[in-house]
Amino acid sequence: MPRMTALFSAALLTAGLMSAQAHAQDQSQDPAQDPSATQQPQATAEDFSDEQLQQFADASQEIAVISQDYTERLQEAEDEQAQQDVRMEANDKMVEVVEDSGLDVDTFNAIGQAIQQDPEMMQRVQEMASES
Questions:
Q1: Scanning 11, 56, 73, 86, which has the fewest C-beta atoms within 10 Å of its C-beta?
Q2: Residue 98 lies in a domain
Q3: Is residue 112 in some structural domain?
Q4: pLDDT for 25-78, tens place per residue?
Q5: Is residue 30 part of a domain?
Q6: Where is the composition biased (Low complexity) (predicted)?
């Protein structure tokens, strides 16, 4: 379950990244709800190849669309079970996109966390996304 939450959080951050807005700051996420955010060591741009960053940028664009669609569906869900079903379906689609890009979920999430801490890396990924 924490893996799903981390990917869903990364997808929401990615949606913000691709629209060049500080979406992560708009989301008042409680770190206690995402323990992976505090347990993983911080990665830097040097930890990732250009190919991985490009794969992240490409996957992020697709995930941004999925995230937007499923965020709307989540808001329309009538009860907790319906919301959980929407989250699970969204997560499955996002995992598929990440894996199809050539990355594993952990690497995707690590890049997503690293760009939050490194404005230059964020700019680099944004440029990669706009070129593809």
A1: 73
A2: yes
A3: yes
A4: 333 334 444 444 444 455 665 789 999 999 999 999 999 999 999 999 999 999
A5: no
A6: 19-37
Would you list the DSSP string of the chain?
-HHHHHHHHHHHHHHHHHTTS-HHHHS---GGG-THHHHSPPP-GGGS-HHHHHHHHHHHHHHHHHHHHHHHHHHH--SHHHHHHHHHHHHHHHHHHHHHHT--HHHHHHHHHHHHH-HHHHHHHHHHHHH-
Taking a C-beta distance cutoff of 8 angstroms, is the pair 86, 74 a contact?
yes
DSSP code for 4:
H
Which pTM value belongs to this model? 0.67
Q: Which residue has the tokens 């913000």?
A: 16
Residue 33 lies in a domain: no
